[in-house]
Design a protein that fits this description.
Layout lengths: L3 E6 L3 H13 L2 E6 L2 H10 L4 E5 L1 E2 L2 E2 H11 L5 E6 L3 H9 L4 E5 L3 H14 L7 E4 L2 E4 L4 E4 L2 E3 L3 H12 L5 E2 H9 L8 H14 L6 E4 L3 E4 L4
Helix pairs in contact: 6-7, 6-8
């Protein structure tokens, strides 16, 4: 299972660290943003699988941020966090497009189960983003990121990386890659085309350790961090 990316808007560092550590143990990658503006900037660069929104932020409220998110990503799962008894906040959250809410103080197990629930309801939302070490593919935008920086790839380079990511942990033969990436489109190319495309891809991704050559067989992507 690929690591699920979680963006968390929270200005309380202690709470944020506790949540980040717990979800990390559950196989989730949590990025914390202490302001509304920081969360917006992060989402504009790369879309996570699910967003957690604290209700009261230094530079805005959760309902406004949720409304902004929903205007751009219709299906991005959003869970907002509110203090006990603030029923007006709960109503406002749903009115502005939130998928669920968790009341503070919350049990970490409850938050985790709510995240899994919204991901199940969103269908393929968790599958839009594939990751391996510091490389991420946002399939909904056909965008590739290395260490949060978007990398410009050619069509062949993108298809090659996507195919390897979709088969992460498995060795894929050179013949199978040529068949799936080029021959399937009616472009019959020689074996050297794959070698050249792979070299360019590795160069653009700063020679990632997670993209391995299996000598005389093919290639395999696997997490190393």
């Amino acid at each position: 299972m690929d690591m699920i990316e979680v963006y968390y808007a929270e200005d309380d560092g202690d709470i944020a660290n506790i949540v980040k550590e717990y979800l990390g143990q559950k196989g989730m990658k949590v990025s914390v943003y202490p302001t509304v503006s920081a969360m917006k900037q992060a989402l504009e660069k790369h879309t996570a699988a699910v967003v957690l929104l604290d209700w009261k932020m230094p530079d805005g409220r959760g309902d406004g941020l949720c409304r902004w998110i929903r205007s751009r990503w219709k299906d991005l799962p959003v869970i907002f966090l509110t203090v006990r008894g603030d029923s007006a906040d709960i109503v406002s959250g749903f009115e502005n497009g939130a998928d669920d809410y968790v009341v503070k103080p919350f049990a970490l197990e409850v938050l985790y189960s709510r995240i899994l629930a919204v991901l199940r309801r969103s269908g393929s939302a968790a599958e839009r983003c594939l990751s391996c070490d510091e490389i991420t593919i946002d399939q909904s935008r056909h965008a590739v990121f290395y260490r949060s920086e978007e990398i410009a790839l050619s069509g062949a380079e993108y298809r090659l990386l996507l195919y390897l990511m979709q088969n992460k942990g498995r060795t894929v033969t050179r013949g199978k890659i040529l068949e799936q990436i080029w021959d399937a489109a009616g472009n019959y190319v020689n074996d050297n085309t794959l070698t050249v495309t792979m070299k360019r891809l590795r160069d653009k991704l700063s020679q990632p350790a997670c993209l391995k050559t299996v000598r005389s067989v093919g290639y395999r992507m696997e997490d190393t961090l």
